Amino acid sequence: MNPQGHPEPDSEPPTIPSSPRTPKMKVSSKLNRWSMGRALRSGAVKIDRQAQRTDNNDAPCRQVTTDEEADRKTSAIEDGCRDDVAGKSIYMVSDGTGWTAEHSVNAALGQFEDPLVNRGFPVNTHLFSWVEDEEKLIEIIKQAAKQKAMCFYTLANPSMSKSAKEACDLLGVLSVDILGPIIQGIASHLGVSPSGLTRGAAGRVKTLNDAYFKRIEAIEFTIKQDDGTLPENLGKADIILVGVSRTGKTPLSTYIAQKGYKVANVPFVMGVDPPKTLFEVEPRKIFGLKIQLVVLQAIRRTRAKTLGVDREGKNRYSGFDLVRKELDFASKIYAKNPGWAVIDVTNKAIEETAAVILRLYHDGSDSSTSVPCISKRF
């Protein structure tokens, strides 16, 4: 196993840590750093930072135990080995689900992947949702002050937003009001005052409207159409994703479906012809997914290891020649269908790929604007 935790391409996980590196392992390392960066930004997991190597010594630093870390947190290590540190904290406070605050912060943290991942400066995010009580709000900000955290908040109620600002200023907590300036700008643009009601308030418009039920219908359709199931229904889909195994078709389909689009996905398997109904669909609805060979191989090896597949099965699923042939097989199908948009998903987040797909989808169906955009009516 290489220093980043990936198995070597053509062998069982080795027992000797000094195994020489190969070019394939470098790609696997890049994939691992990208995944680590997303995990750190989301705050979903907390990882123990692996001891780094010194510039003039190939011997890795010894990983310390939890007790040792606690005792040495404030010690500066000059020999090139860095102990785990608590990291900076970011608090996100919302009177709703916290989706806006969380995604805004995650998007901003994406600009700091190098210090977060490669230099070992972790950031811990903490999301507090459905905070509609001022006493609870002040308690959270007091805790943020103790941890010397930064605070982001999305509070629709002007009184709560004002209290958050005053408390942060009083306690010396650096804060950002994400929602307030947007609400004020829209109010000025429309010439009307905002309601100031939280998401769960009784006076809010019910969320169980036509758009909500359309979204549920899209999700149900997408689940039934996963992995090439019911090819006779492909004509009913808004978007169809095609590609070889492990290019992210299923999670991407689910993500797009949550935005109200009916999505089907069809796998390309060598020796199996794609369903005829696929070629009867309007080409602009079909999106081919491609990925770099070595990255796909690393993903498949990780998947095989998770499933406990033996070495022979692993080679059949993630062997270099097999993966190359599958990608070539898909490329030939794409070449025969120039009307399909083909998207490289290598090292791309689901959100990024989905944004590209939806932009192209709406660009093909709406020629009213010179620049592609996604339009909605409220």
Question: How would you sum up this structure, described in words?
Answer:
The chain is of the alpha/beta class and 378 residues long. Helix content is 43%, strand content 11%. It contains 13 helices and eight strands. The strands form two sheets. It has a four-stranded parallel β-sheet, with helices on both faces. β5, α9 and β6 form a beta-alpha-beta unit. α5 (134-146) packs parallel to α6 and α10 packs across α12 (320-336).
What percent of residues are in strands?
A: 5-15%
In round numbers, the mean pLDDT is: 80
Number of helices: 13
Q: Order of strands side by side in the largest beta sheet?
A: 2-1-3-4
Quaternary structure state of the chains depicted = single chain
Share of residues in helices: 40-55%
Number of DSSP E strands = 8
What form results from the Cα inertia axes?
globular
Distance between the termini: 52 Å
Largest sheet: 4 strands, parallel
The residue ranges in which pLDDT falls below 50 over 5 or more consecutive positions are 1-28, 46-85
What is the N-to-C order of secondary-structure elements (H for helix, E for strand)?
HHEHHEHEHEHHEHEEHHHEH
The radius of gyration computed from the alpha-carbon positions, rounded to a whole number of angstroms, is 25 Å
Task: Indicate the structural class.
Answer: alpha/beta
